[in-house]
Amino acid sequence: MTNKKRVALGNGLVYLILLAMTVAVLIPVLWMLSTSLKNDTELFTIPPRWIPEDITFASYQRIWEDYPFLNYFMNSIMVVSLSTLIALVFSCLAGYGVSRFRFRGKGMFLTFLLVTQMFPSIMLLIPFYKIIQVMGLTNTHLALILTYISFTIPLCSWMMLGYFQGIPKELDEAAAIDGCGRLRTFIQIVFPLSLPGVSATAIYSFITGWNEYMYALVLTQSEKMKTVPVGIGQLIGQYKIMWNDMMAASLVATIPLSILFVFFQKYLISGLTAGAVKS
Amino acid sequence: MKKSYAYSSSWSGYWFILPALLTMLVLIAYPLLYGVYISGFNTNLLNKWDFVGLKYYIQILSDTEFLNKIWITLKYAALVVAGNFVVGMSLALLLNREIKFRLLFRAILILPWLFPDVVVALLWKWLYNPLYGLFNYLLQSMHLIKTPIEWLDSQHFALFGVAIASVWKGYPLVMIMLLAGLQSISKDLYEAAEIDGCNKWQLFRHITIPGLMPVTLVVLILETVWWFKHFTIVWLLTAGGPINVTSVVSIDIYRTAFQSFQFGRASAMAVIVFVICLLMSYVYRRLLETNDQ
Amino acid sequence: MATRTKWLNATLMLFLALALVVTGCGGNSSSDNSKSGSSSGGSSGGSSNSQSGGSGSSGSSDEQITLRIVSPTVVENPEGEVETKYAEEYMKLHPNVKIEFIGVPMNEVYAKIITMATGRDMPDIFINSPEFYARAYEMGLTEDLNTLLGEEFVNGFHPATLREAVIDGQLQYAPFFTIPTGLLYRKDWFEEEGLSVPETWDEFVAAAQKLTKDTDGDGNVDRWGFAMVGSKNGSGGSRFIPIMRTFGAAELVKNENGEWVTQFDTPEAAQAFQLYGDLVNKYEVVPPGPFQTSYAEAVSLMASEKTAMMVTGPHTIGAVLKQNPSLEGKLAGAPLPHAPGKDTVSVLGMLGFSIYNGSKHKEVAADYLKFILSKENQLEWNKVTGRFPSRLDALEDPQIQSPTLSGFMQAMDFAFQVPDVPFYADVQVAAAEGYQSVIGKQAGAEEAAKRAAEAVNQLLESLK
């Protein structure tokens, strides 16, 4: 059956492309892993060595013992989780509001969100610090939470808007007719259908906040408050880079992110909106 | 037709957008205005505030070097955004299918996004290194080249080299956003079209692409803006070299502000970048906007 | 209607609550900072935390004082350990004092200080340097240390360091260490080849050529004479500029009228650019990829024994040895070579500590600075980090007068004062663009020199 063969060939091509990209992604990552297992003397050999002669987990030990990475992790998790949550709530509200209501300034609001992304953020650093300082929030978790919310709301709102627009208003109305209050309508009917959008924006929000460096550096002062990127940045000295520790820390830092991703990505599957209109 | 009873009251709409709006106004609008304000001064932000009016703007815009750098930044942004979209779109389509090991592939292919910019930049700098780097080593051990290639030293390749590293880091975001966008295209549409006898390509062109257009537009605008403003990867890989080949504008802004401490001038550059971003997004919307009301 | 209103009210409440929390947390910023920044020490945050907590609260009748210090070295390794140790020792001697470090990587430290200054949230002590001190003075951040430290103490600094630390007769910062630029070279290889330390650039080229060879006979050169830092940043520019000065051309000097002028467009400057181009293209004594070679890469080249010489300061010895301990005793320093008839040149690369003139604890801060500048502590700093003391008593110690380090010691006397113009970083980049054009064969030396001069003149224009 030529059709079956065609399908098989198609599938084969799919796997081939995916495999090729996987290799392109994994080669640098494996190099990171290899570096994290080397001691200082083996870092820069010519030719480069994949497997160190002297495999050592000292870097992994050091990041927990010599630097307070556990501390940094806790801070990051706390700050980024909360900021993601709040950003999601605000964005869902905004997206829902724009998609369901007619009011003046809708377009302006949306454009405003985009426009806030267009100024080089490094120049916003100092006035931003001033605001935080006036509110008395320097060196607190709340400062970073507010910062990251302001970074991610624009894209999240737009994404959620797009999602809600794809969910027919008839559903809302049908629910209203059935006697559902607005809140119930949102939670039980509209929200579940927008889970892929929520997933993607949650992932985006989390990763963006997790990896942010400059603002975290400026807004935190004590070791107690620093986040993971700031911790990693400290491994880059004026005259020396602690390559192995940096790679080890970076790899370990991806673990919470990966766990989160695995959890959320299961909502990125087809079929959630199927049949929604019919029922 | 029954009118949606509660949904036309305009006040409720405002309540919904209030949290987001308030947050952005307080946290971003003030800094934005501040940034524009100080671009008219020769200032150190503390005790020196010499009004210079539009002097910086005139100086900057009449400097051909700066205009050249804008051009280079546009090239860089174009390369990276194109790369991100091609790779991101392809992978989103592939990872949308029900294939074996889908979760594994997704988890691996998202990895580059999980590392901080600094780490990605330093990693790639190392990979590109002529003597210690992996790329030359692999090519040499496969006997494809004899002498090491000086990737980032080459005036022809440097911009591509920087763009490739950026795409490696940047494609997962586009991939995830497009993947989410694909979920919202109703399967019924595909089924109906298939029944009508459309082939795969036609399905793609007439259902997938239009269905993705809203997401694509937003992500395209934001991606272009983000990579136009991007700093870290270019700075750490080449610092703008060789000579001037990868001198993106963000490097000048950074140097002017935090090495020369001339905040007014740096702000003027930032405002110019801001205006360019506005223009670009306007162009995009005109070209691509489908009715998204 | 009821449910809708209920929900909207709930949302509004949530938001109001958030707003209240935010403003409620506001208040006296200084009390907030001392509350939240209660950990001291840099990298060894955990252990020193408890230690300082103990010594701080040991019943003392004196007023409890907290000194906040912004320092980039405290987050580095091994500098951080030594710096933290000083703090701990001081706290033991003065139980009523608590020292809190605000560690920021060097690349971001001035941005942080400026941010804190604009937020009126300055620490008591902060890092300062020739690159920043004019800016800090202009912002009114520094206290005159002549009065705080006393004339006798100030006279104990090496005069070269003071030259770049004083403005309008006021001492801006207490120089803490210097890393005078010189030529770092492989003493053992020089001895093998029967070479003496080069004093002119011709001798340098000859030595580099002799040391560039194929050591394992596989037909490829695997050892080069010179690890050139050719990157397009301050790292590269700040090495090229002293070299250019040894030809007799300065990137910026004051003319008879006291105005800054550039000498980039002189034949001597062109010679310097030509040298860089020739080293790479004509004599081929530089490993491939000079544009990507910033400081860290050059250190690795020296450590992996790929190169014989490097333009840098004494701190590099420690960095190289860390990557390759077998090079102990094989490295030495010398002043930079120079053009015939000219002098050698060096740059101090200094860092020091300023006291904020709005600080409430200036005397204690000054006392702490004197403590870390004691001969013993200075020598220990040198031993661990390789950086040079700024104090004369420490510099005269045999530890510094060792054969390895004495070359750098000599270089110190030839240090030039970094021109105090706000755009100096751009001047360094203009130099870098220049040598990259020559090496990349995009322009001849004279053309490149001219372009660099144009760039600098444009910068000078913008000052007016």
Question: What does this 3D model show about the protein?
Answer:
The complex is a heterotrimer of chains A (279), B (293) and C (464). With 279 residues, chain A is mainly alpha-helical. Helices cover 71% and strands 0% of the residues of chain A. Chain A is globular. The model of chain A is unreliable at 273-279 (pLDDT under 50). Chain B has one domain (51-288): MetI-like (MetI-like fold, Orthogonal Bundle), CATH 1.10.3720.10. Chain B has 13 helices and 2 strands. Chain B has helices at 10-38, 55-61, 64-96, 102-109, 111-114, 117-128, 134-141, 158-183, 187-195, 200-229, 232-237, 249-258, 263-288; strands at 41-43, 49-51. In chain B, α10 runs antiparallel to α13. The model of chain B is unreliable at 1-6 (pLDDT under 50). By secondary structure, chain C is α+β, with helices and mostly antiparallel strands. Chain C folds into 2 domains: 38-179 and 349-409, 3-Layer(aba) Sandwich (D-Maltodextrin-Binding Protein, domain 2), CATH 3.40.190.10; 182-345 and 421-463, Periplasmic binding protein-like II (D-Maltodextrin-Binding Protein, domain 2), CATH 3.40.190.10. Chain C contains 21 helices and 14 strands. Chain C has a 6-stranded mixed sheet. In chain C, β9 and β10 (260-261) form a beta hairpin. Chain C is globular.
